[in-house]
């Protein structure tokens, strides 16, 4: 058994334990289904934060983003009588799980092991010094958890509703699937680029989707969450279900893309020309 396999086994037992913690917390909590799920999510976030501190590696959290929506669909099936769901409810949950398992697999194949930590977390450790653990909990763990929970609000409406707008539900599932496809092609192209023969550190992926927009994986992620929001609206959810999708767009546009652009410009001389030629997300616009 190689080192990476052993470290992935660590992740599996950690996230299995997190699932048990979340299930227990949801059962112990009082209030609406939404409140109980929120309590469970908070307990699990505290759990994965503890693992991050124990391992001195905040990348213990990285899989949480994609795993938790899968956990949520399983729990909603349990508490909302999923045996009686119609095709629109099942379709939405299947799309969410397709996104979840694909993205988690992509993370797992690219994660080298505990010796690696996301470069953004490394920068935060250097910049924030003794205050890093505050950044670690509130910025690296709690903030993304809140964004994903907000983006999942539509799933509560989908799981519980008895009245649907079929056309809007189909549109939402289609948009979400297009997002998953974008991410699938973009991530596979990036994985092939990273494992190419004779790689040079300054090389930039400029073919396939990466020659059309600089961040097709981010575009796919945003499309997926807009699809989930449309499904929430199609299940009778209020305008609040759109806030998560809006938050995702702001997160990528205001934080992830500027940070990535800055890092790429500092390490790859050809990036400046690539940036002027290839838009970040939308051809002809931005």
Topology:
Blueprint: H1 3-28, H2 33-55, H3 64-79, H4 87-110, H5 119-128, H6 132-151, H7 153-160, H8 166-194, H9 216-234, H10 242-267, H11 271-277
Description:
This protein has helices at residues 3-28, 33-55, 64-79, 87-110, 119-128, 132-151, 153-160, 166-194, 216-234, 242-267, 271-277. It has 286 residues and is an all-alpha fold. It has one domain. Helix 3 packs across helix 6, helix 4 packs parallel to helix 8 (166-194) and helix 7 (153-160) packs parallel to helix 9 (216-234). The longest helix has 29 residues, at 166-194. It has 11 helices and no strands. It is globular, with a radius of gyration of 19 Å.
Structural descriptors:
0% strand, globular, mainly alpha, 73% helix
Amount of helix: over 70%
- The domain tally reads 1
Radius of gyration: 19 Å
| Mean of all residue-level pLDDT scores | 95
Contiguous low-pLDDT stretches (5 residues minimum) are none
Biggest sheet layout:
none
SSE series: HHHHHHHHHHH
Strand content: under 5%
Cα-to-Cα separation, first versus last residue: 46 Å
The dominant shape is globular
Work out the oligomeric state of the chains in this entry. single chain
By secondary-structure content and strand pairing, the structural class works out as: mainly alpha
For the secondary structure, the number of strands is: 0
Number of H- or I-type helical stretches: 11
Please sum up the structure shown.
By secondary structure, the protein is mainly alpha-helical. It has helices at residues 3-28, 33-55, 64-79, 87-110, 119-128, 132-151, 153-160, 166-194, 216-234, 242-267, 271-277.
């Amino acid at each position: 058994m190689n080192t990476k396999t052993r470290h992935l086994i660590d992740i599996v037992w950690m996230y299995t334990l997190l699932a048990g913690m979340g299930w227990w917390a949801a059962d112990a909590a009082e209030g609406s289904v939404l409140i109980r799920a929120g309590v469970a999510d908070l307990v699990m976030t505290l759990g994965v934060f503890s693992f991050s501190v124990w391992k001195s590696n905040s990348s213990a959290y990285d899989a949480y983003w994609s795993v938790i929506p899968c956990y949520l669909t399983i729990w909603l099936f349990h508490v909302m009588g999923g045996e009686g769901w119609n095709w629109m409810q099942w379709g939405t949950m299947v799309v969410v799980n397709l996104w979840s398992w694909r993205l988690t697999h992509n993370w797992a194949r690219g994660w080298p092991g505990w010796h690696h930590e996301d470069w953004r977390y490394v920068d935060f450790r250097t910049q924030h010094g003794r205050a890093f653990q505050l950044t670690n909990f509130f910025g690296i763990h709690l903030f993304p958890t809140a964004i994903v929970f907000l983006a999942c609000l539509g799933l509560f409406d989908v799981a519980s509703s008895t009245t649907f707008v079929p056309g809007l539900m189909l549109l939402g599932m289609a948009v979400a699937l297009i997002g998953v496809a974008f991410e699938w092609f973009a991530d596979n192209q990036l994985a092939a680029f990273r494992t190419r023969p004779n790689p040079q550190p300054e090389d930039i992926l400029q073919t396939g989707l990466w020659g059309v927009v600089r961040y097709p994986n981010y575009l796919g992620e945003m499309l997926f969450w807009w699809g989930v929001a449309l499904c929430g609206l199609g299940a009778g959810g209020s305008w609040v279900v759109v806030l998560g999708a809006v938050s995702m767009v702001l997160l990528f546009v205001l934080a992830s893309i500027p940070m990535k652009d800055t890092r790429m410009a500092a390490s790859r001389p050809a990036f400046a020309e690539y940036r002027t030629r290839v838009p970040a997300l939308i051809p002809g616009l931005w």
